[in-house]
Write a structure and sequence with these properties.
The complex is a heterodimer of chains A (481) and B (353).
Chain A: E1 18-20, E2 23-24, H1 29-35, H2 40-57, E3 60-62, E4 71-73, E5 76-83, H3 85-109, H4 114-117, H5 123-127, E6 149-151, E7 153-156, E8 162-166, H6 175-188, H7 190-195, H8 204-213, E9 225-228, H9 237-247, E10 251-252, E11 257-260, E12 263-268, E13 271-274, E14 277-280, H10 284-287, H11 303-308, E15 313-315, H12 326-329, H13 332-340, E16 352-353, H14 357-365, E17 370-374, E18 383-385, H15 391-403, E19 408-412, E20 418-423, E21 426-435, E22 437-440, E23 444-446, E24 451-455, E25 469-476
Parallel strand pairs in A: 5-25, 9-10, 9-14, 14-15
Antiparallel strand pairs in A: 1-2, 3-4, 6-22, 7-8, 11-12, 12-13, 16-19, 17-18, 17-19, 20-21, 21-24, 22-23, 24-25
Helix pairs in contact in A: 2-6, 3-13, 8-9
Chain B: H1 3-36, H2 44-54, H3 57-63, H4 69-77, H5 86-99, H6 106-120, H7 122-130, H8 132-153, H9 158-181, H10 198-205, H11 210-216, H12 222-231, H13 239-254, H14 264-277, H15 281-287, H16 289-313, H17 343-351
The chains are: A alpha+beta (481), B mainly alpha (353).
Chain lengths: 481, 353
């Protein structure tokens, strides 16, 4: 057994690497036999070299509320998370099933609303979602696909079962870190990646481009695709640039685009050039000041009209946020049953809805045992960790729930799985999740792996980068060992 | 290529070139003083021209009462409040690079990002404090590295052309400013080589022309030096050489048409190129070096403005349909990245998921 892990304690959680102290799971053995032999000093030197490379390459996100416009690297832990083939196959099937059902659902509620008429899911709950866009009802979108790029968050419980925590059907971020993490690993452990059967992720750029090209208006064989960014002050600007570069398409800001005859053009040095497909990383609200927020400085006036007429395609489509509503999330298993007549392959986390009287009462009685979340918040904001919250915080949340029950859901506290993370000079267990990226173009494709996020703070269950989270490379194997 | 991107690439190149020129100027002035030190000369006469070249005399006197070497050097090198400092030029180059990261090679980006990390780091500051020559040399080397990387990784398309436009225009502009600092000096050859050719020698050094000039001319004749730096088409930093490339690059970007259809930047650059080619140094001196350079600078400036108007501002006026509405054009904003420091827009950018 290797020395670096001699004192490692998996604890009472599901540990990704060790089934018991000193007993590594089969799919980690290859990794441990080589990494485990490093001294803490060697390991720490490798880690520092990777951090310095990230800074030099500018693989950073912008810290808000800082006048200096400080850019930080997204903390990266060198030890990869490994997923064996059989496990991944199930995850992949589950994600495919889920994005299929979500797209059928969105197409339905923006057209006939059959699922509501059949009372398979409660109408008031769906139509009251704040990201539901009634003004978009009846608009035909290319191939009826609404979510082309989805970043579903998965977690594992104390038994190692996979659960879906949320679907990010608007602008999921992080794919660039997935790609850069692998790049860093190739530099740090070249021999290891060669000797283990790790599935590559670098086709993501090509896959994304193909997915987007599939949306091009009819008759356009060589569509002009662009990435629409809010601008360099957005925390994900690095990612927007990175993905544009991977795809070999221009990155544009709203002010680079202009409307002519309901078509979208970009201002180039040689005049105007028509744009056919836009991978937009701007929220619905800011996309078009003529339709949504009038004060938007980022959008393109008239772009929605062009989209309605089919002259330009947007990815993701408008109004997909309704599926990101955490109360609507609770209905996904029903959608899968209703549209596909299947059992969900990846279960939801048990969810209590504030809007339902009985469940709301249960939430209020059990605040000390539950995680309460506001339905439209993300990034680890607007939530109450019941067991660790103070009495005052719980009382405060109880008031908020009573005032607006539709806006809250609650879930039991999951004991997320843990993974060894290098701390100072040794390994300690930290909670992790997984965000795989699902693309829906001419077919559904899932990049093998995704972004494993780590709650770096000891004991923390929150993995978001804004809350002290970091990431790991994720290795999906071609086999099971 | 997007107009905004062209503008940023152009300014990225200009700022790198500016940082390089400032570093070399400070370095050569410092060396010059070491030679002149024994003469007990008034240091002001060496440092004031530097502020004059960068056009920062007023900004400087707002902070400092007297002109002292240390203060001037620090002001030009690292003062965050000085918009034209080496520090801010490097920041601006890097920010412009950041907005066009998808267009330039990773190697270019890493080079500029690394330079910015250096000048902002404790290492950078302590290098400057302990041995500022080492600091200047580091900036110079990075700039050469940038030129080399750009040359060997950039396809010869629009990115390259706008990069070269920025570099050549800035270089010509800096050279003309440097020459201007010597316009008040006597044109007489020093009576014997030991006496004091120092300022003219420093001028050659501050544009890396010392060896090249020596190889061509045996004596440090001020007239020859002016001719070399202003009119010689073979020396890569001379104004004439920069303008030749400027003209060629603009022709590649716009094509060569008849005079009637020739875009304004091509015409302006071509005219200046011919003027420089058919002007003798005696004619320059007859007008007066300072006066000549004044006109030269305003012509260079006009070329810059017409580049902006042709490629950035007017690009969206190309009619697509007969009924295309007239767009209102905003005033030219120079410096690209800096032009858009709108706080509301910044806040909205941050609000996006």
């Amino acid at each position: 057994m290797s020395s670096l892990f001699n004192d490692y304690q998996p604890g009472k959680f599901f540990d990704e690497v060790f089934s018991a102290p000193g007993a590594a799971r089969a799919h980690y053995e290859g990794l441990l036999s080589s990494v485990g032999n490093l001294t803490p000093g060697d390991y720490s030197t490798l880690q520092k070299a990777v951090d310095a490379a990230f800074l030099r390459m500018g693989v950073t996100f912008t810290v808000y509320g800082d006048d200096q416009g400080t850019e930080r690297i997204f903390p990266f832990d060198l030890m990869p998370r490994i997923i064996p083939q059989r496990e991944w196959e199930r995850v992949e099937a589950g994600l495919t099933q889920r994005i299929t059902a979500l797209n059928l659902f969105l197409n339905d509620i923006y057209h006939g609303q059959k699922i509501l008429n059949d009372k398979a899911v409660p109408e008031e709950l769906v139509l009251s979602a704040s990201h539901y866009r009634p003004e978009f009802k009846g608009v035909k979108v290319p191939h009826g696909i609404y979510i082309h790029i989805c970043g579903t968050d998965l977690v594992r419980d104390d038994k190692g079962e996979y659960f879906v925590l949320e679907d990010n059907g608007r602008c999921p971020s992080g794919a660039s870190y997935m790609l850069e993490n692998r790049h860093a690993m190739k530099r740090a452990f070249p021999g290891l990646l060669q000797s283990l059967p790790v599935r590559p992720v670098d086709a993501y750029g090509t896959m994304l481009r193909e997915t987007l090209a599939h949306l091009a208006p009819k008759g356009v064989l060589e569509p002009t695709i662009v990435v629409l960014t809010p601008g360099i002050y957005n925390s994900a600007y690095f990612e927007h640039c990175y993905l544009a570069k991977q795809m070999g398409v221009p990155i544009v800001e709203g002010r680079d685009l202009i409307m002519r005859n309901d078509r979208v053009f970009m201002r180039t040095t040689k005049g105007l050039e028509q744009v056919h497909v836009i991978y937009r990383r701007i929220d619905d609200d800011f996309l078009d000041p003529l339709v949504f927020r009038k004060d938007s400085l980022l959008g393109v006036p008239g772009i929605i009209n062009s989209y309605r007429k089919g002259h330009v395609a947007l990815a993701n489509s408008i109004g997909t946020g309704v599926a990101d509503d955490k109360a609507v999330y609770a209905l996904v298993p029903k959608m899968i049953e209703y549209y596909l007549d299947q059992e969900p392959i990846l279960p939801n986390v048990q969810t209590f809805l504030g809007i339902k009287k009985k469940e709301c009462a249960y939430i209020l009685e059990n605040l000390d045992k539950l995680v309460v979340k506001a339905v439209n918040e993300s990034g680890g904001y607007g939530m109450l960790m019941g067991p660790s919250a103070s009495k005052k915080e719980r009382a405060d949340f109880a008031e908020r729930i009573k005032a607006n029950p539709r806006n809250y859901i609650a879930q039991p506290v999951l004991q997320l799985s843990r993974h060894p993370v290098f701390v100072d000079d040794h390994f300690e267990g930290r909670h992790i999740d997984l965000r795989p990226y699902v693309l829906y173009g001419d077919r559904v494709r899932v990049v093998p792996g995704g972004l494993t996020r780590v709650a770096l703070k000891k004991g923390s269950l929150v993995v978001n980068s804004s809350q002290g989270g970091g990431s790991k490379d994720t290795w999906v194997l071609w086999n099971d060992e | 290529m997007l107009s905004r991107v062209a503008d940023s690439i152009y300014w990225m190149a200009r700022y790198v070139e500016r940082a390089e020129n400032l570093s070399r100027l400070l370095l050569s002035t410092q060396d010059l003083l070491l030679d002149a030190g024994a003469d007990g000369l008034d240091e002001e006469q060496f440092w004031r021209p530097i502020l004059a070249t960068t056009g920062d005399e007023e900004a400087y006197s707002a902070v400092h009462k007297k002109i002292k070497g240390r203060d001037v050097a620090a002001f030009v090198a690292l003062r965050p409040e000085n918009p034209n400092s080496i520090l801010n030029s490097i920041r601006a180059a890097r920010e412009n690079a950041r907005t066009v990261r998808d267009q330039i090679s990773d190697e270019i980006w890493e080079c500029l990002n690394g330079l910015r990390l250096f000048v902002e780091s404790n290492e950078g500051r302590s290098t400057y404090r302990n041995q500022n020559a080492a600091f200047y040399e580091r900036v110079l080397r990075r700039s050469y590295q940038f030129q080399g990387i750009a040359d060997s990784t950039t396809p010869r398309g629009e990115v390259w052309h706008f990069l070269r436009l920025g570099t050549c225009l800035e270089r010509a502009d800096q050279m003309s400013r440097l020459l201007d600092t010597c316009s008040a000096l006597s044109m007489e050859m020093p009576p014997h080589p030991q006496s004091r050719p120092l300022r003219w020698a420093a001028l050659l050094r501050s544009c890396s022309a010392w060896h090249a000039f020596q190889a061509e001319h045996s004596k440090l004749d001020p007239k020859k030096i002016i001719e070399y730096l202003l009119l010689d088409e073979t020396f890569p930093r001379s104004v004439a050489c920069c303008v030749v490339e400027l003209h060629q690059t603009l022709q590649r970007l716009c094509g060569v048409g008849s005079l009637h259809h020739m875009p304004s930047p091509v015409r302006r650059a071509g005219r200046l190129r011919s003027d420089l080619a058919y002007t003798t140094v005696d004619e320059v001196l007859a007008v007066g070096l300072h006066e000549y350079i004044d006109i030269l600078q305003s012509r260079l400036n006009d070329i810059g403005v017409s580049i902006f108007q042709t490629f950035v501002l007017y690009a969206d006026l190309t009619p697509v349909a007969e009924d295309a509405p007239e767009e209102t054009t905003s005033t030219p904003a120079l410096g690209a990245f800096h032009a858009h420091h709108d706080e509301d827009a910044q806040m909205q950018q941050q609000q996006q998921q």
